[in-house]
């Protein structure tokens, strides 16, 4: 979440308001030619799926189904959310475990830099447990009228004609409503499908949305003593170094009554457990004696899929590839994409009187989303390539965190999803300071260890 260079300033200038495009809406599939209600299936009950279902469920002529395999799912995730998300999505305070107001950046040589002094008293990064937040969002969608199905979608049959006047999508699922471990087979036919089913999306595969590269995130939830937990009361730590990840960072994030300790990598996924062992070593006495209460691992997309709308099926959240590089942030973008997709469909359906086409969904959902957040993905991709590619660059990254200007610009960008009060003079200074930091970092850093995994590194989801 703390991507710190002059390039970051570009993100603020690139952000623009999201305005629904005015597209021509032919009178295809008028109310008389379709079922009594338009049926929409949202596959996946995380933030993206729940936020999409919440919007659609409020339409009286739209029947919204929200399908989720594990209603108590605890997705492996750092769990950080920006301050703007709390108000924008009306999140209650009880789902936020910790309010982080201080961060400690730790370099490959264990140089520590404390940041957070630019935050106002009411500003913080929220730390959540996904099982709590996701459950709240699902329940809210259900209260608005979404019909929830506790089931796993096993197959998606795509109609030969996916235009508005074509046939329906048929979703097969195993329903887990009872006590038994085996699911009861069922199916549902719908007019529109929203794939919110994560990195291994079955919806994406069914519509041939294309592959993407991915990271593996690995996290251990560790219960530590109350005395040690007090150290992390409002503090999060980020570690960089090729020992904890060759292309990402490691973290210690405070949760309700424990800490999440984890790391991730794209380029050397087979060694993820070695990097996790190194994370525990780097954290050292601060988590010593702790008990591992849960081990989690999950793929994280590295870029948007080539196709996010095919026919009347669309992707949101991780299924679409909406996770930023460098920071690995995905919760806000998942919720935002789900809401924007739901709102786009509501506009296009015109009170449930028509079924939208592929081109209309692209114009109303994909283009506004890309306009608003595409530059963010681009900038953070560049930052990751610059600062996570060697120990020298990582040392420079941490050194730059000492700059008050860098901290202010970074936190404003993360907390509010826009950069406020950019100073061109300071940006120029930052550019030269970046060069100096890179030179100094390269001079003091230990060389990176070499590794090779030519076969596994080519795998895609």
Automatic annotation (TrEMBL):
Signal peptide residue numbers: 1-16
Residue ranges of every copy of the FAD-binding domain listed in the record: 38-351
Any Gene Ontology biological process: photosynthesis
Pathway: Cofactor biosynthesis; tocopherol biosynthesis; Porphyrin-containing compound metabolism
Transmembrane segments: none
Gene Ontology MF terms: FAD binding; geranylgeranyl diphosphate reductase activity; geranylgeranyl reductase activity
Origin: domain of life: Eukaryota
Enzyme Commission numbers on file: 1.3.1.83
Alphabetical list of NCBIfam families matching this protein: BchP-ChlP, ChlP, GG-red-SF
Family that this chain belongs to: Belongs to the geranylgeranyl reductase family. ChlP subfamily.
Name assigned to this protein: Geranylgeranyl diphosphate reductase, chloroplastic
Organism the protein comes from: Diacronema lutheri (Unicellular marine alga)
Lineage: Eukaryota, Haptista, Haptophyta, Pavlovophyceae, Pavlovales
């Amino acid at each position: 979440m703390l991507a710190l260079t002059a390039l970051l300033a570009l993100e603020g200038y690139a952000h623009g308001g999201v305005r629904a495009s005015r597209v021509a809406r032919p009178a295809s599939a008028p109310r008389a030619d379709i079922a009594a209600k338009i049926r929409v299936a949202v596959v996946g009950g995380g933030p993206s799926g729940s936020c999409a279902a919440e919007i659609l469920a409020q339409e009286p002529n739209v029947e919204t189904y929200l399908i989720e395999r594990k209603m108590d799912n605890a997705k492996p995730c750092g769990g950080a959310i920006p301050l703007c998300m709390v108000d924008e999505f009306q999140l209650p305070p009880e789902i936020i475990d910790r309010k982080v107001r201080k961060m400690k950046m730790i370099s490959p040589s264990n140089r520590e830099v404390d940041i957070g002094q630019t935050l106002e008293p009411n500003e913080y990064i929220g730390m959540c447990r996904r099982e709590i937040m996701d459950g709240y969002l699902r329940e809210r969608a259900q209260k608005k009228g979404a019909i929830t199905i506790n089931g796993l979608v096993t197959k998606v049959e795509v109609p030969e004609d996916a235009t508005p006047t074509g046939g329906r999508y048929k979703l097969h699922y195993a329903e887990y409503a009872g006590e038994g471990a085996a699911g009861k087979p069922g199916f549902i036919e719908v007019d529109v499908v929203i794939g919110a089913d994560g990195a291994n999306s079955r919806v994406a595969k069914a519509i041939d949305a294309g592959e993407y590269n991915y990271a593996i995130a690995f996290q251990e939830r560790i219960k530590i003593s109350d005395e040690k937990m007090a150290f992390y009361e409002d503090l999060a730590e980020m570690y960089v170094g090729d020992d904890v990840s060759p292309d990402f960072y490691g973290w210690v994030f405070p949760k309700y009554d424990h800490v999440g300790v984890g790391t991730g990598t794209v380029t050397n996924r087979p060694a993820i457990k070695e990097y996790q062992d190194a994370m525990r070593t780097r954290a050292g006495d601060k988590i010593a004696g702790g008990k591992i209460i849960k081990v989690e691992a999950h793929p994280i997309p590295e870029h948007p899929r080539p196709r996010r709308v095919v026919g009347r099926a669309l992707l949101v959240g991780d299924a679409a590839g909406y996770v930023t590089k460098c920071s690995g942030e995905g919760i806000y973008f998942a919720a935002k994409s789900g809401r924007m997709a739901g709102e786009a469909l509501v506009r296009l359906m015109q009170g449930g009187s028509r079924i939208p086409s592929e081109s209309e969904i692209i114009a109303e959902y994909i283009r506004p989303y890309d306009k608003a957040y595409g530059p963010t993905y681009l900038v953070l991709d560049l930052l990751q390539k610059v600062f996570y590619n060697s120990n020298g660059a990582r040392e420079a990254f941490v050194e730059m965190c000492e700059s008050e200007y860098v901290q202010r610009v970074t936190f404003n960008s993360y907390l509010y999803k826009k950069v406020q009060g950019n100073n061109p003079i300071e940006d120029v200074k930052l550019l030269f300071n970046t060069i100096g930091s890179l030179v100094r970092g390269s001079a003091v850093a230990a060389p990176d260890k070499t590794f090779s995994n030519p076969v596994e590194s080519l795998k895609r989801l």
